[in-house]
Amino acid sequence: MTKSDQSPSFKRVMLEALPSLRAFAVSLVGQPDRADDLVQDTIMKAWAKQESFTMGTSMKAWLFTILRNEFYSQMRKRGREVSDPDGTFTSQLAVHPGQYGALDLQDFREALSQLPEDQREAIILIGASGFSYEEAANICGCATGTIKSRVNRARNALQDILSITNENDFGPDAESASVIHRGAMA
């Protein structure tokens, strides 16, 4: 099938997904105008890469993946862009050591591997792959409530395995944070 043969149905299926894409984008960025920009970027990338899409597979899942990846790319880019003409922010920079992030990820992967397969599958589909509960339920061949229950049990199990009791359990430990804070004050 050539690109021109594929385009009309590709375009139609892509346009049908727009309302869902926009709703997902609004939930990610929180601002309708930025969400519209994100959806537009997603559609532009999808159109440019339409030959990599296989008709008959889930266009919605493919588009959601592109949107989610674009969102995180933009967030990383914004995270690197700081307006600091007088050097005020630069003089106070201190960074959480990178090895802690790698160790945290290793701990998370180990904890994830300890979950029962059905819970691990559900939390990956919802949390990492960006599918809705309904889509994940269709993928797993079960009820939406079952997926919600599996995700809830998985989150609770991960908190227990990782000994997470509150938001202070994320990021640097108290000792590392105090060293970073003192370095920033110097």
TrEMBL record:
<dbReference type="InterPro" id="IPR013249">
    <property type="entry name" value="RNA_pol_sigma70_r4_t2"/>
</dbReference>
<dbReference type="GO" id="GO:0016987">
    <property type="term" value="F:sigma factor activity"/>
</dbReference>
<comment type="similarity">
    <text>Belongs to the sigma-70 factor family. ECF subfamily.</text>
</comment>
<keyword id="KW-0805">Transcription regulation</keyword>
<dbReference type="GO" id="GO:0006352">
    <property type="term" value="P:DNA-templated transcription initiation"/>
</dbReference>
<dbReference type="InterPro" id="IPR014284">
    <property type="entry name" value="RNA_pol_sigma-70_dom"/>
</dbReference>
<dbReference type="InterPro" id="IPR039425">
    <property type="entry name" value="RNA_pol_sigma-70-like"/>
</dbReference>
<keyword id="KW-0238">DNA-binding</keyword>
<dbReference type="InterPro" id="IPR000838">
    <property type="entry name" value="RNA_pol_sigma70_ECF_CS"/>
</dbReference>
<dbReference type="InterPro" id="IPR036388">
    <property type="entry name" value="WH-like_DNA-bd_sf"/>
</dbReference>
<dbReference type="InterPro" id="IPR013324">
    <property type="entry name" value="RNA_pol_sigma_r3/r4-like"/>
</dbReference>
<dbReference type="Pfam" id="PF08281">
    <property type="entry name" value="Sigma70_r4_2"/>
</dbReference>
<dbReference type="Pfam" id="PF04542">
    <property type="entry name" value="Sigma70_r2"/>
</dbReference>
<keyword id="KW-0804">Transcription</keyword>
<dbReference type="InterPro" id="IPR007627">
    <property type="entry name" value="RNA_pol_sigma70_r2"/>
</dbReference>
<dbReference type="GO" id="GO:0003677">
    <property type="term" value="F:DNA binding"/>
</dbReference>
<feature type="domain" description="RNA polymerase sigma-70 region 2">
    <location>
        <begin position="18"/>
        <end position="80"/>
    </location>
</feature>
<keyword id="KW-0731">Sigma factor</keyword>
<dbReference type="InterPro" id="IPR013325">
    <property type="entry name" value="RNA_pol_sigma_r2"/>
</dbReference>
<feature type="domain" description="RNA polymerase sigma factor 70 region 4 type 2">
    <location>
        <begin position="106"/>
        <end position="158"/>
    </location>
</feature>
<protein>
    <recommendedName>
        <fullName>RNA polymerase sigma factor</fullName>
    </recommendedName>
</protein>
